[in-house]
Structure formats: structure tokens, C-alpha cells
Amino acid sequence: xxxxxxxxxxxxxxxxxxxxxxxxxxxxxxxxxxxxxxxxxxxxxxxxxxxxxxxxxxxxxxxxxxxxxxxxxxxxxxxxxxxxxxxxxxxxxxxxxxxxxxxxxxxxxxxxxxxxxxxxxxxxxxxxxxxxxxxxxxxxxxxxxxxxxxxxxxxxxxxxxxxxxxxxxxxxxxxxxxxxxxxxxxxxxxxxxxxxxxxxxxxxxxxxxxxxxxxxxxxxxxxxxxxxxxxxxxxxxxxxxxxxxxxxxxxxxxxxxxxxxxxxxxxxxxxxxxxxxxxxxxxxxxxxxxxxxxxxxxxxxxxxxxxxxxxxxxxxxxxxxxxxxxxxxxxxxxxxxxxxxxxxxxxxxxxxxxxxxxxxxxxxxxxxxxxxxxxxxxxx
Length: 380
Fold this sequence. Notes:
380 residues; mainly alpha; 11 helices
């Protein structure tokens, strides 16, 4: 009898589980329908964005043609200016809409990962991934600093290879993560992305540089260079993190902006003291290039030496030029803003000066008993 009761209980449990499974099937069916609907809406939004951009290009082209006309009234010019402002605003709006839609992978990601969708549609997940990227850089930077210091103290080939392999893996991973961040709205661009690709190649060449006298002559200098660069990057990370947090809170920076090894215009506030450290690091890169160039004349020199010399020289030129351009751009903006402010103050003073004689003339006319312009108008 007890066995029969147990079986009945089991059948009852199974019946309840079957009911729950039917609920699961219904939920899954609804999920599939919503997913298909989501893909349809994503495709529809993408097509409409393409249409918007096509029409804006046509309108911009026609505006340029229209502006070439000789006789344009001030009213027409105002309309053109307003249209140009509207187009710029619409471009920004479309960019914001795109952040919630899947993006095409870059060619680099397609080669590395294949045609896999790496778009992160949830805003919180995007920010979380970006924060993980920052933590990854910080942790690997500290590990690299420790390994560089150990390689200065101990001259073991195995320890060198561990450090060099770490550099290759770090920069490879960094380029992949940055490409994923780029797909998801991060605005890192230009030289600072290329810098990491060149560093990846540089680390790979260092890894295959055979043991010999030329390597031993360059080894200590390279390890000291890495110690210095790691310390500078750590300082940059700490200060850039704080500045980015404040600017994002004020709405002046994008949530997907990241810390970089160089200098951007938004870092101007409070980070100018880093200039000497940055340029010392760049000069260190040039010194590495010069040392390697001299080592090319060594009897045991291999092909890695001239290649590394060129790569370090490229890094020096690229870093120095980009940072100087940012500084010049910022100084130009400050000068322009200063002149605009001075012009605005001068125009206000001029208006005040013009008004004063008018008021004095009105007072004199009143004293003589003559009607003022306002009184004459009222009389009329």
C-alpha cells in the first residue's frame, strides 16, 4: 500500500512538472516570436538610418551648390545656416540611435573571431565590459611592472620569455578588446589604436630575438624602459579615470570613453603635469631606436634589430606628433575663446558708449523744453 501511495505521489509530481513544462513551452514560443520581431525591427531601423544618411548627403550636396550662387539674401543665408545646424544635430541623433543597434564587425575582428556578432545592446552591459577592460589594463600593467623589475634583478632566459610572451598576449588581447569596444560605441581612434597594433608587432619581434650578445647589450635598457612606462601608465590610468568620471558626471564625455596611453584634449583639466613624464617616455623610445640602430653594426646582429629600431622610431614619432598636435589644438582653442570673449566685451562697451550720448541728448532737449524723439512720435 505504501508503494502505491509513493507512486501516486510521483505521478502527481510529474503531472505538476508537465504543467510547468507547458508553461515553459509557451514562454519559449513567446520569446522566439519576440526575438524574430526584434530582428525585424533592428533591420528596419538600420534601413531607415541608411535612408536618413543618404537623404542628408543629398541635402548637404544641394546646399553647397546653392551657396555658390552669387546673389543670396541675408534671409536665405540664415535658412542655410539653420539647415546645416539641423543636419549636424540629426547626425548626432542617429549616432545615439545606432548605439542600441547591432554594428558590423571591423575587418580585424572578422579575421580574428569570424563573422560573430559582438554588439552589446544593453547599456549597462556595455559599461560593465568597458570597466572590465580598464581593470584588465591595470592588472596587466602591474604584473608587467613586477616582471620587468624581476628581469632587472635576475638574468634568466625563462623569465625574459615569460615577460615577452606576456607582452605579446597583452597587446593582442588589447587590440581585440578595443575593436569590440569600438563596435559598441567607444570613440578611441586614430594613432592610439594603431599604437597598440605596432606594439603587438614589436613584442612579437622581441620574443623571437635569439639569445646573444646584442640582446644582452639591449636587455637592461629595455627592462628599465618597461619599468618607467609601466609607472607612467599607472599614473595616467589613475588620473584619467578620475577625470573621465567627473566629465561623464557633467555630461561632457561619452560613457564608453576609455583611458589611453597618450594624451587627449579632454585630459587638459588637471593632467598637464603629466607632459614631462610622457615626453621622457617618448624620448626613451627614441633612445631605444638609436641604441638598436647602433647594434645593427654588431657582428652578431640579426634581422630583429633593424626592424625593432624602425618600430621604436615610429612609436616615438607617432606619440610625440599626436601629443603635440593635441596641445597645439587646445592652445588654439583657448586663444580663439579668449579673442571671442574680448570681442564680445568690446562690442558691449561700444553699445554702452553709443547709448550714453543718446541719453545725454535727450536730457539736454528736455532741459531746453524741446520734445524728445519719443514725445514727437506720440504727438504724431
